[in-house]
């Protein structure tokens, strides 16, 4: 998926020749959207999928009291509850247009590993589960009809460790049938409560080649299917192990 003969080589020297488009410089105002299964519990923020498995986090006990034991009711069980029955992409796009926004950027895939688009690389996505709709695709069409720029963000990188709390006590994260959603869930070497440690750009264990190639394939799939004019990545993309893959994607 990443062998296309593009204008640039996967090196910083070549990629630095890219000229930032005028629309991006002039746009000023855009809207960034977080929406996914984590909106069902609607507790605190979009990091609920991680925090619900961390025993020292308030979300852990909240989940047990509200939804039940983590073996019986895990994050995966919120997916069927995300029905999106009232989602109207045209209505959203008109609201964005009326607000003066020039570009719209939904989170195509958050750390939870559940793409909000129609992915050919996983069964765990919004087009096949939950709403059973291509949320990003519908929004892309509606936004472009009103002459706004469509962009996406990917937070897939953090999926390497995002559900690691579920490895430390009996939970559904440990069930092989759920690997497609929870992923490696590698127990991170960092103290999740120490923000300074999180600034380290070389966590261990490092993501392996299988994970990195899958990350790259998903990024290229977003480009192939939706042609976003911006792809934004969350903070963990700064990990040194991602650099050659990031270069390959940028050249793609």
Describe this structure in words.
By secondary structure, the chain is of the alpha/beta class. It has a single domain, classed as Glycosidases (TIM Barrel, Alpha-Beta Barrel). Helices cover 30% and strands 8% of the residues. The protein is built from 9 helices and 5 strands. The longest helix has 18 residues, at 209-226. It is globular. The model has no long low-confidence stretch (mean pLDDT 95).
State the name of the first-level CATH class. Alpha Beta
Largest sheet: 5 strands, parallel
Shape: globular
Query: How many distinct helices?
Result: 9
What is the third-level CATH name, the topology? TIM Barrel
Keywords:
alpha/beta; 9 helices; globular; about 250 residues; TIM Barrel; about 30% helix
């Amino acid at each position: 998926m990443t062998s296309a003969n593009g204008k640039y080589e996967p090196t910083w020297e070549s990629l630095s020749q890219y000229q930032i488009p005028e629309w991006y410089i002039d746009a000023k105002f855009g809207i960034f959207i977080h929406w996914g299964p984590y909106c069902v519990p609607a507790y605190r923020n979009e990091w609920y999928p991680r925090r619900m498995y961390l025993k020292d986090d308030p979300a852990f006990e909240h989940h047990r009291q509200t939804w039940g034991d983590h073996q019986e009711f895990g994050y995966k069980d919120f997916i069927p509850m995300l029905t999106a029955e009232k989602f109207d992409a045209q209505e959203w796009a008109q609201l964005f247009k009326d607000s003066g926004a020039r570009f719209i950027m939904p989170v195509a895939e958050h750390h939870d590993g559940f793409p909000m688009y129609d992915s050919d690389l996983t069964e765990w996505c919004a087009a096949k589960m939950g709403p059973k709709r291509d949320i990003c695709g519908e929004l892309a069409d509606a936004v472009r009809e009103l002459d706004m720029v469509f962009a996406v963000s990917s937070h897939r990188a953090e999926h390497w460790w995002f559900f690691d709390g579920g490895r430390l006590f009996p939970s559904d994260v440990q069930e092989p049938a759920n690997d497609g959603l929870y992923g490696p869930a590698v127990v991170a070497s960092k103290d999740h409560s120490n923000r300074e440690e999180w600034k380290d750009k070389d966590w261990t264990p490092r993501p392996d080649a299988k994970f990195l190639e899958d990350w790259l394939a998903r990024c290229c799939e977003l480009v192939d299917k939706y042609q976003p004019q911006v792809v934004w990545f969350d903070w963990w993309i700064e990990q040194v192990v991602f650099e050659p893959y990031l270069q390959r994607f940028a050249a793609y």
